[in-house]
Amino acid sequence: MKRRVTGIGGIFLKADDPEATKDWYSKHLGIKSGKWGGTFQWRKAENKEKTGFTAWSIFKNDTEYTNPSTKDAMINYRVENLEELLNTLKAEGVEIVGEMESYDYGKFGWIMDPNGYKVELWEPVDKNYEDICDPADLNNMD
User: Fold this and answer.
1) Apex CA 5: angle with CA 116 and CA 60, to 5°?
2) How many CA atoms lie less than 13 Å away from 24 in the CB half-sphere?
3) Do 122 and 9 contact (CB within 8 A), yes or no?
4) Helices and strands, counts by H and E, the chain
5) Could you give the number of structural domains in the chain?
6) Among 36, 38, 94, 135, which one is least packed by beta carbons within 10 Å?
7) First to last CA, the chain
8) Which residue range forms the structural domain that includes residue 26?
9) What's the Cα-to-Cα distance from 70 to each of 47, 59, 106, rounded to whole Å?
10) Cα 25 from chain centroid?
11) pLDDT at residue 137 tops 80
12) pLDDT of residue 136
């Protein structure tokens, strides 16, 4: 099996007022954030010509996206082979949440950790993700 997790794909927080929270992060930490949040673009260590991305977003407290977790945060991890990893995790007794979903910019799956956090797993297609990013929301980390 290839490596399981290759990096952080995203950080998702819940807030009473997502817009005010995004404004606070923008003012005090300089994080650019649009409708869907911010995107940190970086260069891959093994090939500086290729970019990768880490998403950052604030959801309303009543979002159902993080269900069945009741926690205020969810981490998205970048993975290499999502289908194989989900099968391995299931065999190891890890709770799988929902069905894997595929989009032009990658595949997504979800699991629950032992502390009740929903964990999102993303097998990215970085070039396609780059094509849908709003350049105004990029937080470059070159």
Assistant:
1) 45
2) 8
3) yes
4) 3, 8
5) 1
6) 135
7) 30
8) 5-140
9) 39, 13, 26
10) 18
11) no
12) 67
Look at residue 135 and tell me whether its pLDDT is greater than 70.
Answer: no
pLDDT score for 60: 95
Q: Does 93 have pLDDT greater than 90?
A: yes
What is residue 141's predicted lDDT score, i.e. its pLDDT?
58
Work out the average pLDDT over 26-50: 85
Instruction: Please count the residues of the chain.
Output: 142
Residue 75: strand pairing partners = 11, 119
Distance CA 82, CA 141 (A): 26
Query: Which residues are within 8 A (CB) of 46 and not within 5 positions of it... i.e. 6 or more apart?
Result: none
* Residue 2 tokens, joined: 């290839």
Beta-bridged to residue 47, according to DSSP, are 44
Strand-strand pairing, 73-79 and 5-15: antiparallel
Q: Express each pLDDT in 62-82 by its tens digit.
A: 999 999 999 999 999 999 999
